[in-house]
Amino acid sequence: MINGAHVILYSQDAEADRAFIRDVLAFPGVDAGGGWLIFKLPPAEIAVHPTEGAPQHEFFLMCDDLDAQLGELRARGVEISRPVSEQRWGRLTAVRLPSGAELPLYEPRHPVAHSL
User: Fold this and answer.
1) Which positions fall inside the VOC domain (predicted)?
2) What is the extent of the structural domain holding 100?
3) Mean pLDDT throughout 40-56?
């Protein structure tokens, strides 16, 4: 029986991004050995979108109140790397990880499945 999902973020500065997830986002985690941290994620959901191009995968964090969440992140010194945009499915932005990569964050305006 499938009992979870394991998401992998590839990073050019994995140690700094792991510290960000641990210290700034405050996700609890385990040390799988040798400082290799694996974090507990909030409840998740998966969607499958059609594409004409090469298949790809995306990872977004979700929140109930984007403005409040951005305020908390700014107070912790997090760079908001994209202005909030209104999409038909929700409000979207992204934060900058220490490695320079972006981590998208959105407030859904669609029914969510993560709490079913």
Assistant:
1) 3-108
2) 14-108
3) 94
114 located within any domain: no
Only one residue has tokens 């985690």, namely: 29
Does residue 95 lie within any of the structural domains? Answer: yes
Reported as a single tens digit per residue, the pLDDT across 57-104 is 999 999 999 999 999 999 999 999 999 999 999 999 999 999 999 999
Q: Of the candidates 43, 37, 29, 41, which has an alpha carbon nearest to the alpha carbon of residue 11? A: 37
Q: What is the pLDDT of residue 98?
A: 97
Q: What angle do CA 58, 71, 13 make, to 5 degrees?
A: 45
Instruction: Strands of the chain (E only): list them.
Output: 29-31, 37-39, 61-62, 80-87, 90-96, 102-108
- 10 Å Cβ neighbour count for 91? 18
CATH number, domain of 65, equals 3.10.180.10
